[in-house]
Task: inverse folding
C-alpha cells in the first residue's frame, strides 16, 4: 500500500497568472518525484473534452509531461487502471461527478490513489470530487448525479473559489460563509475548508499542508471559523471527527 | 378549474427595503383579490421554522393577514389541502425541495395551485421550487433530494438573485451567466429567466408579467441572452418550447 499524494487547487485560473501557473512548482515536483511520464486528464466537468485537453496540454507539455485525455480511450476504466497520474479539471461539479458514476470510475480512481499511491491533481470541480462529497460545491445542479458522495480521498469537505463578502455590494443573496454554515447545521456535516483562489492543498500520506499565495478559511462545526495561513499544517483534518 | 396565480420574488430582502416591502403592493393585491384571510407559510428552506415564521408574520400581519406555519400542523398535507394561500420562503433550495418530497407535499401544492387556483407566493428558494426544476438554483447542495424536478407550476426555469459580473473583481470563478449557459448546453434545458433582486414575476393564468424595480435577463437556448425591462409581457414562456 503506497501513500496517497494529492494536490488540490482552488482553481486553475488565478488572477495575474497563466493557466495552472500558480501551482507549477507543486505539480512539477509531484510528477517528477513519482517518475510520471504521462498524465491522464479527466475533462468531464466541461462539455468540449477535446478543447479542454488542448488547454491542459499547453503548460504540462511545456513542463515536460505527456498528457492524454480519458475520453480518447474506448475503455475509460482500463485507462484509469493504467494511469501514472490523474488530473481532474474544473467546470461543473455535478456533470463531473455524474459522469464518473456513469462510467464506473469512482471505485477505480479511489483504489489507485489510496492503494497504489498514484498522484492525483484536482482543480475546482476536480478538487470537490476528491473530497468526501460535493455538498459544498458552488456549481449549479445542472444534472442529477446518483449521489453527492464523491471519491472520498480525504474525509472532509472543501469549498473551492472561497470568497469573502464584498462590503460594498448591495447584493442580498447568501454569502459563501452563510452557505457553509447552513451546511454545518446538519448533524452529518464535518469540517469544510474554504480554499480561496491561489490556494493549493498538498496531501502527502497523512500530512496535509496549505500552500499557495493566499489564506484559507476553516469551518469546524460548532466552532468559530478561522483563517489558515499558507504553510500551515492541517493534518488533523484527516482524523475523522 | 380556476386559473393559477403566482407571485415569484427574486428575494424577500432587497437593498434599501424592509423584508418583503418591495413586493408589498403585489402581495396585498393578490391576497385581497382572492379574499384570503390566512396565509400558510412554508419555512422548510431554513432550519429554525419558528423564528422564520416570526419574520414573515411581521409585515403580513401588519398588512392585515393572519399567517400560520405549516410546521405547526401535525398533518402538513391536510394543512395544504385547506390553505387559502401559500407563501414559501427562501433559504436553501435543496433542503426545501427534499422536505417537500419527504412530507409528500409536492402533489398537493401543485394541484391546489394549478386546479384550485390557490395563490402561491414564493421568494428565492420558494421561487426556484415553483418552476419545473431546481437545476438553476444558486444554493449549495447540502442535502440530497430524491429528484431535482420541482412543483412545475411554470414550465421554465428561474435563477433568483441573478447578478452580473463585477468588472472590477479579481475572482475567477464562473459568472452567473456562464453557469446558466453551461446548463443550456444540455439538450433537455429550456428557457431560464435570470431574476435580478428587486424583480417580481407575476403569473395570472396564462399571462406572465415582469414587475419590480429592475430588469431581468432572459436565456433562451441557442439565442443571445437579452434584457427584459419591468412591465414586459413574458407569457410566451408558458408555451413549451
Result:
Amino acid at each position: 500500500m503506497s501513500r496517497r499524494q494529492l494536490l488540490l487547487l482552488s482553481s486553475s485560473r488565478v488572477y495575474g497568472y497563466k493557466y495552472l501557473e500558480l501551482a507549477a512548482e507543486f505539480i512539477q515536483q509531484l510528477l517528477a518525484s513519482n517518475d510520471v511520464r504521462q498524465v491522464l486528464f479527466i475533462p468531464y466537468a466541461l462539455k468540449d473534452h477535446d478543447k479542454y485537453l488542448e488547454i491542459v496540454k499547453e503548460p504540462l507539455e511545456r513542463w515536460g509531461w505527456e498528457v492524454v485525455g480519458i475520453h480518447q480511450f474506448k475503455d475509460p476504466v482500463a485507462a484509469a487502471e493504467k494511469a501514472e497520474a490523474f488530473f481532474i479539471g474544473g467546470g461543473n461539479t455535478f456533470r463531473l461527478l455524474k459522469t464518473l458514476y456513469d462510467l464506473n470510475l469512482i471505485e477505480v480512481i479511489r483504489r489507485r490513489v489510496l492503494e497504489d499511491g498514484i498522484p492525483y491533481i484536482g482543480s475546482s470541480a476536480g478538487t470537490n470530487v476528491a473530497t468526501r462529497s460535493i455538498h459544498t460545491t458552488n456549481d449549479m445542479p445542472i444534472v442529477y448525479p446518483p449521489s453527492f458522495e464523491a471519491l472520498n480521498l480525504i474525509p472532509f469537505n472543501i469549498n473551492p473559489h472561497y470568497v469573502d463578502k464584498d462590503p460594498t455590494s448591495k447584493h442580498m443573496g447568501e454569502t459563501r460563509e452563510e452557505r457553509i454554515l447552513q451546511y454545518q447545521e446538519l448533524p452529518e456535516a464535518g469540517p469544510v475548508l474554504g480554499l480561496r483562489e491561489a490556494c493549493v492543498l498538498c496531501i502527502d500520506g497523512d500530512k496535509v499542508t496549505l500552500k499557495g499565495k493566499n489564506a484559507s478559511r476553516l469551518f469546524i462545526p460548532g466552532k468559530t471559523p478561522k483563517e489558515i495561513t499558507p504553510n500551515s499544517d492541517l493534518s488533523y483534518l484527516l482524523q475523522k471527527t
Observations:
- The first strand of chain B starts at residue 5 and ends at 9.
- Chain B has one domain: 5-238.
